[in-house]
Every structure is written in structure tokens, then in C-alpha cells.
Amino acid sequence: MADNIALNHERIAPGVPEESHALRAGSDSAEVQPVAGQYDDVILERESRERLDTITDELSEIKIILYNDKSSEYEVETALARYKALMNKENMIFIHSISRKWSDDAIYINNRIHDFEISKELITHEYYDEQLHVLARYSHDISLKYHREGMSGYMEFYKGTTKILNDYGNYIGDVVDKGKKTQLKEDKFKYDLIVELNKYIPNVDEDKGFIYKSDIEIVPVGKPGFYNVIIDGEIIESNVSYKSAMIAVEGFFNAYDKPINGTRFIRQIIPEKDAEGNVVKLRGKVRQYVAPVNFSKYLSIGNYWDNNTSNIDAHIGYINKVNIFSDKEHCNVILVDIIKENANFKNKIDQSLPFHVKNPINNNGYKEIDVTKMNVLSTRLDGIKKELQLSLDEFTQHYSTKNSNYENMVKNITNMISDLFSEIKHMLRN
After folding, report:
1. Same domain assignment for residues 47 and 186
2. Residue 51: its pLDDT value, please?
3. How far apart are CA 335 and CA 328, in angstroms?
4. Residues 131 and 113 reside in one and the same domain
5. Which residue among 60, 115, 282, 323 has its CA within the 20 to 30 Å range from the CA of 42?
6. Is the pTM of this model over 0.70?
7. Structural domain boundaries enclosing 331
8. For residue 145, what pLDDT band results from cuts at 50, 70 and 90?
9. Which pairs from 134-140 meet CB under 8 Å and 24+ separation?
């Protein structure tokens, strides 16, 4: 019996001194208590070792990912998230509270990961260069492209309409009724203006009638979690994380924050699905169209662009909150909103266009117009031409200002960076 007890003691608690037979056989409970306490210490020690081994192994895996040059941005972010979840306050206290002969490895690896976090947050010269590069891609280049190409599209509209307005004299006939009235081919004049304007009335179904178009596409590539960023058919970034791709989407839409007076934007985010209902592409689109108030009023066209609401801000919030490629619920919400927006916009356009605009009649006959009305009409047409000219001038001014401001900003930031690093070098020498 005694041999069995000794054998069990050695199996359960190796290394704990065995008490004398006298104590085991005849002592009271108070004298036995130290032995029971040593059993508890051994069990606790084993539990601590197992917990420490688990923490150390996971820390080691995280460190390998962080210090591997081939790790992607997504893998690094995932590893850092694992680290923050693992090294909570409780585990941090634990690894520093037990014997250092056991916890040295865990503490060393933890410090190495912490060093990585610090180095990741440090602002370096390369960091500034990268940020300027991103700024150029998603703010400067897109904004300049918009103002350049948008201005070109508006110029076509401007040239077509002002040509007719400037040819107003060709629609005027003789003065009649003893100088009280003037002959005017008013229907023909309006017909020509309507034909020109109809080229620029938005058609969301056929994607026509816009002076400027631009698209950004987020397309999955390779293994899950990596995407290409494509703007107007050109790959801007490749194999980036979902978070980086969404930053690109926000930067893209920020370039179209406020339209030029006399124009409006359509801004939408559209998840595109395959036949099986899987999202295969996230497309952001911007469409710009003309919205000349006085011109439309003269032709009795309603302001269909007024109160044309969009849920673009909410949709950007959705795609930042969840991965839209795997979240069908938010994807469907966005698609339903887009269908409603397009339907409402088409309905407003339809209600705003009178019959003579939808079905213009080429009437070449003269009308006799009172001289006073002719003078009012001439003043009104001058106002329309001025309105169109002001929009064109604003395009030109914005393009010039943005280009100049960007060059000055880059110059100032570059000088600041150089001065900063010169100061750092000077401090290090001393």
C-alpha cells in the first residue's frame, strides 16, 4: 500500500519532497496541510506553463509574419489585430508575473512585436513620399482630369448653344405694323436650341447626355482579400487590402465634392454580381451633366436636377463597415437604393420636359412680335449667354487654381521634409 502511495505521488507531483511515514500515518490535518499546498502549487505551475506556452507560440507566429518582407499589407494588419487581442492587460500582467526563466522567450518576442508597432508608426521620408504619391493619384490627378475633361465637355455644349444664340439675328425678319412689331422665327429658334440641348439631357439607362464620365473599379485578384484598383480602365494599384481599396474609393469621390455652377453630378457605388449572385466587382461612377437654369426656363423646362438626392455617403459608410464582396445584406440595400435613385431621376426628367421639347416641331414660319417683347427677349438671351459663359469661366479658373495650388503645396511640403530631416541629422551628429 505504501509503495502504491509513493508511486502515485511521484506520478502526480514529481520533484515535491515526500513527507515522512509518521506524518502520513498519524498526524492531524494541520500537519498534513503543507503537503496538500505543494500539490496545488504543482498543478497551478503546470497550468501556467501551458498558458505561457500557448501565448509564446502565438507570439512567435505573429512575429514571423510581421518581420517577413513577403507578408502582404492584409497579413500584417491581421497579425497586428491578433497581437492586440492576445496581449490584453490580463496576459501582459501574467507573462511578467511568473518566473523569468520561463517567461523570457515570451517577453522577448512581445518586445520585438512592440518594436515593430513603433517602427510602423514612425513617419519617415519614404512615408511622406508615399503619401504625396497617394495624394497625386486620388486627389490631384483625378481632380485635374475632371476639370480638364469636364471643361472640354462643357465647351462642346457651350459652343453649340451660343452659336445659335449669337445667330439670333438670322431668325429675325422685317419690321411690320408701322414699326410696332418685328417678324421672328421664334418656333424655329427654339427648335434649334431644343435639338442642341437634347444632346445633353441625361439618360441613365443608355449612359448618354453627360459632359464628363469617370469610373473606379475594385476587382478581386489572386487569393481572397486582395484587390486591384482601376480608374477609367487603368490599374492604379494592384494586390492591395480591402481597407486600402476603400480608401481609394473615398479619395476618388472626394475629387467630385462640389460641381461647377450650371452643372450637377450623379455619384453612385454599384456592386456588380455574376449569374450566381456573387459580387465580382465594386464600381463607383461619377457622371456630370449640364443644368443651365435660365436657358431651361426660357424653353419651359423644369429644373429636374433640383433635390436629386443620393445615398452615396451612406453607401460609403456601408463599404467601410463590411466587406461588400461577402456581405449580401448591405450589397442588396445599396442595389435597391440605386434602382430607386435612377427611377426617381428618370421620372423627374420626364415630368420636367414639356411636349414641345420631347417632340420638337421644325416650324420655319414667322411670328409678329411686339417691339417691347423683342427687347425683353434680347435682354433675356443676353442673360442666358452670360450664364453659360460664367460656368465656362469657373471651369477654367478651377483648373488653373488647382494645378497651381497643388504645385505650391508639393513644393512647401518637400521643403518642410528636407528641413525636418536636416534638423534630425544635426541632432544625431551632436
Report:
1. no
2. 87
3. 10
4. no
5. 60
6. no
7. 127-424
8. confident
9. 134/251, 137/236, 137/237, 137/248, 137/251, 138/247, 138/248, 138/251, 138/252, 138/254, 138/255, 139/251, 139/254, 139/255, 140/402, 140/406
